[in-house]
Amino acid sequence: MNTLILSSQDIHIASTLLQQGELVGIPTETVYGLGANALNPDAVAKIFTAKGRPQDNPLILHIADPSWLTRYCEEIPPTAWQLAEAFWPGPLTMILPSKAIVPDIVRSGLDTVGVRCPNHPLALELIRSCDFPIAAPSGNVSGKPSPTSVSAMAEDMDTKISAILDGGDSLVGVESTIVSVGDNVVLLRSGGIGVEEIQDILHKTVEIPSSHQSQKPVAPGMKYHHYAPQAPVTVVRGQNAPQWIAKEITQEDGVICFEEYASLFTFSYVKIIGKESDFQEQAQQVFQALRYFDSTPVKRIFAQCPMEEGLGRAVANRLQKAAGFRIVDIEE
Ligand code: TXA
Ligand code: MG
Fold first, then answer.
1. Consecutive 10-residue averages of pLDDT for the chain (332 residues)
2. How far, in Å, CA of 296 to CA of 269, rounded?
3. Å from CA of 218 to ligand 2 middle
């Protein structure tokens, strides 16, 4: 199958393909998604095949408007409406009790479903024109870094899906923050919205399970090998991390670093992901950086890691997952 690259003028083609049960790559502000009609189990099944995704890893429903929540979820607590009002459209996914209308295959048989209203004009127009929710995981082959551009999505999905809707580069660059919303709000995946921002809105602490610092999964999808380039990644933390990396590497290695330290690594393959304090830039760059090394012959990749606060928490999490939690802490 030839994968069509569609522009914004061709949105009706994307819409028709989705209605026919085909897969379409959709742009969102976080990362590109691999979309299907969420209410059509056969269409959703194709997502798992195209991605090579285990069936026990549920998908997120993308809706066009917060009011759609009541179509697919029940027992929606006031907290969920508060979060929707504050952050939608935007990079927040809420896990809520599901209505029976959401097919089992979307939620892997769980009685909850993840829902988000993406902040991208083309995605919203597309979902609205379909008038059904779009189920979409990130548009990468399972295990690879998520795509933040149409070309990255095509790299993984060319010939496997009907079309990709080109909406430009993803502005946020890391996936949505996932919280389960009940009596407590629990962080399941750090992402485009900082925990601190959520707490500011709710005047309430967001629970961060201690397993966030380890391999133990919180969301089902967090247990799999993730975001990994071909060469093994090591995350190096601590004030002297750049100097340690500079001593360790050879010409055959790659480095992911902050702008301030790039001059230490002139002999290796280097990807700068922004200034040390610029989490927003780092989030935009991190997946492109991880993908870049697959086009080089590097044998190992060493990465600096941002502070784990605000958006930095999500960037640090993606790097640590790419490293399979191979982390070197440099003593001061
Ligand atoms: O920003 C994003 O969230 C992107 C864009 C395309 O919207 N999507 C995305 O989807 O990252 P995916 O499938 O790559 O990650 C969704 C995560 C998985 O870890 C999955 O296990 C978790 O959400 N998840 C989905 N439904 C869930 C549920 N009912 N309970 C717990 N976790 C759930
Ligand atoms: Mg993903």
1. 96 98 98 98 98 94 98 98 98 98 97 98 98 98 96 97 98 98 96 98 94 59 73 95 95 97 91 98 98 96 96 97 92 76
2. 8
3. 14
Determine contact, residues 132/38, Cβ cutoff 8 Å: yes
- Ligand 1 closest atom vs CA 138: 14
Q: Is the CB of residue 138 below 6 angstroms from any atom belonging to ligand 1?
A: yes
**Do strands 233-237 and 327-329 pair parallel, antiparallel, or not at all (unpaired)?**
parallel
Tell me the whole-structure pTM to 2 decimals.
0.95
Alpha-carbon span 186 to 198, nearest angstrom: 11
- Which of 132, 78, 128, 80 is CA-nearest to residue 106? 132
DSSP string for residues in 74-132: -S--HHHHHHHHHH-SSSEEEEEEBPTTS-HHHHTT-SEEEEE----HHHHHHHHHHTS
